[in-house]
What we know:
Layout: E1 3-5, E2 12-14, E3 16-19, H1 30-42, E4 47-49, H2 58-66, E5 76-81, H3 96-110, E6 115-120, H4 129-141, E7 145-150, H5 155-168, E8 172-175, H6 190-197, E9 200-203, H7 238-242, H8 244-251, H9 254-260, H10 264-273, E10 278-283, H11 288-296, H12 304-314, H13 323-326
Parallel strand pairs: 3-4, 3-10, 4-5, 5-6, 6-7, 7-8, 8-9, 9-10
Antiparallel strand pairs: 1-2
Helix pairs in contact: 1-2, 1-11, 2-3, 3-4, 4-5, 5-6
Amino acid sequence: MKFRYLGNSGFKVSAISYGNWLTHGEQVEQDIAFSCVKAALEAGITTFDTADAYAEGRAEEVLGKALKDQRRESLEVFTKVYFPTGKGPNDTGLSRKHIHESINASLKRLGMDYVDLYQAHRYDHFTPLEETMEAFADVVRSGKALYIGVSEWTADQLREGHRLARELHIPFVSNQPQYNMIWRVIEPEVVPTSCEIGVSQVVYSPLYEGVLTGKYLPGEAPAEGTRAATEGVNTFLTNKLQDQTLLERVQQLKPIADELEITMAQLALAWILANDNVASAIAGASKPEQITAAAAAADIELPSDVLTRIDEVLGDSVNRDASATARSAPTERLVW
């Protein structure tokens, strides 16, 4: 496993990290989740990403149990705060109250004294940014988190958050956006700004909800057992699978992967890691062999001509609309 520095800091993370959104506490049984975490560790993955809102807190609990016997200093554990964690009016957002109550609840569920990275899961339009950053500073100074990051923030939001973090003397090191061969909306503005201020990307959905594995074929119903065929977890896939042109173009990536003697999933992950601003790509798994294969992508370096061929194949299916990032933050307070 290769490791990369997170932002302008001395903190390293594994190039492939393990994430448990939509799996732990929901899609897979606990014993399978434990097996996936074990496989990740055996493959050299030491970075684990979760959030308080995943499976209503169960994801953190399962991850904490799976890592219980590991040497804490050898792990990098990330979690997040923002989305609703209860039915109360203050059980959401990035207020001082919600941040402090959420970090305590996350640490309890994880069974840990601290997390390495605490992330704002979205930008909160209803809480002054100064209040949010001051609360994060308190979390860091209390030793409950070592570094601060965010998720799906725009270039302007990143710049202002970083400015306040500098004033407060806390390490603001990362942004967690969706990023993959198809969804490249961070490239025009977020990535250049991040490079300028010393922030890395820790990206989610590297396989575009499984589309880039090539398992969803044009004109065919999703195979039984896939995420798209599983009721309750296929919400994010509906529009993608209706785009027959996209599915056809993804199939044209298979010869490229075959020439390199790698899987299409590994091709997608290696493509992401070709971006120097990416510190880690988050891979999920419902089977141990999936995370083992994903980890191998850290050692794959794609030649420049392969990157060009990928662009030619995908053509105008690629989304580079920078305004899409701003739309990811809810414009009203979310509640259960």
